[in-house]
Design goal:
Blueprint: E1 2-8, H1 13-23, E2 30-37, H2 43-50, E3 55-57, H3 70-82, E4 86-89, H4 98-103, E5 108-112, H5 127-136, E6 140-147, E7 157-164, H6 171-195
Parallel strand pairs: 1-2, 1-4, 2-3, 4-5
Antiparallel strand pairs: 5-6, 6-7
Bound molecules: 5-O-phosphono-beta-D-ribofuranosylamine.
């Protein structure tokens, strides 16, 4: 049974997709052992609670005056306590400390709402990704699941799925379509592959 830890910062719709996929068998041989949120207000915490999954908040703002590296140490400790086999960044907006990417090398994956290498890296997160895609005028966008390394959205790509950009799309409409048609499908698929020796 693959022990999965999920990190969230906001709505948690990708966490919900994982919870639902484990419940309906799309993800086999895996269980979510803990959710870590970088914000106490994240709705992802509610989703975890409703699913009976332990949720803890490790918020960077709570460690600002606690000295260099205090957040990094608290975040690593919260991960280690859960003894995960796989860490999933699902709408997680905080930079993962190098201590974590090194200790959990090749065991951290992230969902990014574009077809990497387009519209990724520093400053490309959430709606900003879709604003940039619409600004550039691409006709196809999508989502990417990739391994997390020390860089930003630079690790090996695991799965991608393309999504059409429609005339009249706003960033919000496009984000929703990318979530529904790509993110919520390929993130569970990637976890199932990893849990069953597919990667
Ligand atoms: C969304 O923009 C999603 O594309 C990205 O993070 C944001 C929030 O996702 N992965 P979630 O609803 O919190 O899973």
């Amino acid at each position: 049974m693959l022990r999965v830890l999920v990190c969230v910062s906001g709505g948690g719709t990708n966490l919900q997709a994982l919870i639902d996929s484990i419940a309906d068998g799309r993800i086999r041989n895996a269980c979510i052992v803990r959710v870590i949120s970088s914000s106490p207000e994240a709705y992802g915490i509610e989703r975890a609670n409703k699913a009976g999954i332990e949720a803890v908040t490790v918020a960077p703002r709570d460690y600002r005056d606690k000295g260099e590296g205090a957040f990094d140490r608290a975040f690593l400790a919260a991960i280690d306590e859960a003894a995960p086999d796989l860490i999933v960044l699902a709408g997680f907006l905080t930079r993962v400390p190098e201590t974590v990417t090194k200790k959990y090398a090749n065991r951290i994956i992230n969902i990014h709402p574009s077809l990497i290498p387009s519209f990724c890296g520093k400053g490309y997160y959430g709606l900003k990704v879709h604003e940039a895609a619409l600004q550039r005028g691409v006709k196809i966008t999508g989502a990417t699941v990739h391994f997390v390394d020390e860089g930003m959205d630079t690790g090996p790509i695991i799965l991608q799925k393309a999504v059409a950009v429609e005339p009249g799309d706003t960033p919000q409409i496009l984000q929703r379509r990318v979530m529904e048609q790509a993110e919520w499908e390929i993130l569970p698929k990637a976890v199932d592959l990893i849990a069953n020796g597919g990667i």
